[in-house]
Amino acid sequence: MTCLRIVRSLVVYAFLATIVASCAGTITPEEKEHAARLFSAGCGLMAESHFAGAQVLFDSARALDPTESCYWVAAGQARMNQANYDTANALFEKAVEIDSTRREAWFAIGFLALRQARNEDAIRALERCLDDAAALYLAGTAYARMDRYADAERLYARSVEVDPQFISAYYAYGQLLQRLGKDRDARPLLERFSYLRDNGGTSIDLGGDIGTHKQGRMADIPVPERFFFTPDVGASPMKITASSVRFAGRLSVSPGKWVAARACDLDGDGADELLAASEDAVRVWRIAAEDSGFVCSDITPQFSFPGISGTGGRIRDLALGDVGRDGFKDVLIVREKRSTLWVRDPSSNRFVLLRDDLPGAMTGILTDLDHDSYLDIVLGTGTASSPQIIFLRNTGASTFSDNTDSSGLRAETLESHFRGRGPVASIRAADLDRDWDTDLLVTFAAGEPVVLKNQHDGRFGRVADSLDAVSLPRSTVGEHVFWSEVGDVVGDGWLDVVIAGTKGVISITPARAGQAIQISPNVAPSLYSGLGMMELQDIDLDGDLDVLASGFSEETGVFLKVFENRGDGKNWTPVDVPTPATRVPEGRVVGLEPFCFGKPEQLAVLALSGTGVPVVVRAAPRGKLIRMVLDGGRSSRDGLGAVVDVAQGSHWQRRVLSDGGAGQSGCMLAIGLREDTPVDLVRVTWTSGIRQSVPDTALSDADCRLVVVEKPGETSSCPFVYTWNGREFEFIADALGGGVIGVVTVPPSTYHQPDPDEYIRIRGDQLKPQNGKLRLRVAEVLNEASIIDQLALYAVRHFPGEEVYTTERMNMVEPPPTFGIWRIRNAHPIRSARTDMGGDATALLESLDRRYVHPGKQLPYAGFGVPHTLELDLGDQPLGKPIVLLMDGWTSFWNSTSIAEAARDGVGFIPMRIDVREGDNWRTIVPDMGIPAGKPKTIVTDLTGKVPRGSSRIRLVTNMLVFWDRARVSNDATLVPTNEGMERLPLVSSELQYLGYPKAVSPDGIEPYTYVYADCGQKSPWGTLPGYFTRYGDVGQLLSAADDRYVVMNHGDEIALEFRAGNDRRAGSETDYFLFLFGYMKEMVARDSLLSQLEPLPFRGMSYPYSGASPVAQDEDYRAYRAAYQTRRLGHAN
Fold it and tell me: Which residues pair with residue 290 across a beta bridge?
């Protein structure tokens, strides 16, 4: 979130400037610039869902500059997200009055009208943007609501034609056809919907927020186009220097013929190292500045690449990336016959060989093609007549599956596009069409490049409006294309493709067909006939991408040239790189790698020729360097594919962390900031869909290096329980947190043993009968599969003022507690509470108000913090009475990945224990108190006989992230060790059906989230465990008892339950309920090989890992059950 101090100063300035402007009647350039700063800061608040604060900034911006339509749209979006619909609509209408071509405003008008059931108004607005799939879908929905089915069918059909991966349109189209009795036509549409829901696709949520990228391009905050264009044509040309590099000591191996180089901070010390590959060896160099230039030291022995020999053929390429998601960069060595993958061994800090059986190739990259957060391998090879792309999908368990055929990348599939182009020369991965997935740009030894569009369903297809659509063949780039890179060189917020060919360097924007820009003028053909490698980098730090190109000609030998971007992507100034770089001794340049050096850090590019020594190229900086390093969570650990927006007033930059190919190491983004202009926004949009802004305090503290860690977003939790409260389905809690399978608690081989049963407390005011029935929902909406064996609802009657709880908790060491019911009376707040940081936490623990005691500093592993204590003074305790502690809170969970990362650094669990103060010492009285299993729950702990007479001070100690909201103590409590007083209510009906994905909301912008049942999206943000899930329909027979006959739920599914309400309403009593669940969960984030598929299913009495087969697996009735119920095949199950 942007610092409040800066926000307030902007708003104060805006208020004063608005008064001056209203008096003068004109807008000065200074006021326009401050309006831009307010808008940019507001965009940062919107990224953090702080809509009220964003509204203030957007209002101030439009008051200063009322001529900019984008400010009015943004102000309306902020209000719409706060349900202030009338004002929002008026602001959208004002935006189109200012600029009738502002499509985002028309879309917002239609979106809001449809939400308010003003269908005709929605259609009139959406007709202004019917080339957009989402607009077509919304207009079709408006027609369907008006019973104009033919028009609705026409627009739905057009929507899926424009975007063949649009989930929402497939679902609505199929449902419409079913309503019209066209079941045969509806079936393939609904099958496509089911597939895309589970395998990725685009969607829109009518009940969701607007002004966010998640609702599609048209619903995002529009940024004025002029913000991305900042010409500096009047500035003097950049000043380039070049320095040779000397080697300290003697190289440990002869260089041979160098073929590739990559720069990256391999050891995490903040300084970049260079990996250089010859045809038969890989070396690691450390580069440092000295008075006369640069010195290079061979530090290969520190890392080691043992075992590289000639059996795999010549080395052709290198790629870097965190394949194992362990925080270390791994190395893919691409060889002609057999490629190899090397990973870091944390214990020795050396590289060890993980795979030596990967296909041979000529080039390769590491990128996350399927958006599961694991880096995949993409190789390019082939012959002159048959180029070939190979896609090896990372399964997350140190294995790779060859998905070339299933993804449509086999040469035979793309023969008409690839034929005659020669072997693949280079591959780049980026979101070229701005639909939030990773596309491929393929360059060949001969012929034009090809863009292959990611179709969201695991397949790739040729982009219709691709490079051929802008008449790029030989007439533009010449007979041969030598290199390609991806970046926003034009400066309009869209990714461009920069191509070096025999006639020069050109830039095009695939998403905007027909726009080609000549970077190098078509002069001196002999100079460009040998163009080779390029690097896109803001080499002079002025806020735009320049092009550093290398080449070779008979006249000049090896040369380097900079094409300076003059700010608009259309005016370029060629700048020669002076001696010694203009005549590198011999061989073509095989590496152009950006790296940072010195304190404070400076930016340079290292050029490595085939047989020459490196040369370092620098430009006199025009701005300040910020080196951004991204650390993904739900996204790939490297942050590859993330989009970074940086705003300084009306100057916006957009950068994309690319695929780890040459010149784009996937290690950092170098961004040039203007020294005299404050930074108003740094915003990262991760491939997971999470968008976050970077605090300005982090930026000011960063010096030159800024590490951005992806903020957490829930991927897995537990199934959610909803109840009908008389008005709506209310979110109660998550369940079965103890039933998770495959979580490694002590790496590498000690697993959490599932505790598959749980009772969820439901207050009487949260569950009201409707027509004599109690209605509940058990929904699975996160990145996991739920395996439910039994569900039962119990009514518990109690006296007014009495509270009832079970003994439920999640223990880390101790076995699960024996089931019992606590009847609590006269629970009262504790006397006082303090944290180990000296803070008074008494007020925070007085009531359930979402004011949590924060557990302190979080470590860089999900679910772990530094060890911390919470000291409680229970107050005076009466003699001979029970002492029962009631703690209400929630737990931010870990997963197997974070546990493994923590273990690597020597960090393990500290179970939540209770110590008591005795004199000057503390003594443990409860070694494992247990924690809330997920979202807010109550933990009841019996301290009777454990707190010495005269003592009242206890402390809770752990390193787990437990957030406490309330602490009470009771001296009037009874534990009933059976289910005495519980009435099991008859199950009337239970249906497994599709629900969708309820919207996560928070009243205060912080966790824990609640989930709105009535506001469900259709798009799945998760992958799917391959396997057979339970078919939709009646599942009551499966839920009556715990017998290993499961309802197996995929994310997006729910079980709709109805129980007959009890008839006993004794005078003077109240009724609460307990929902009993018996079941398990399989998360998709665990590091267990068995978690890559749904099977094998768990069974009662098992230990984990599985020590045998289910005792009923061979039973004939069991096989019949599987054949009858487990028939829904998902996730490419065999």
Answer: 293
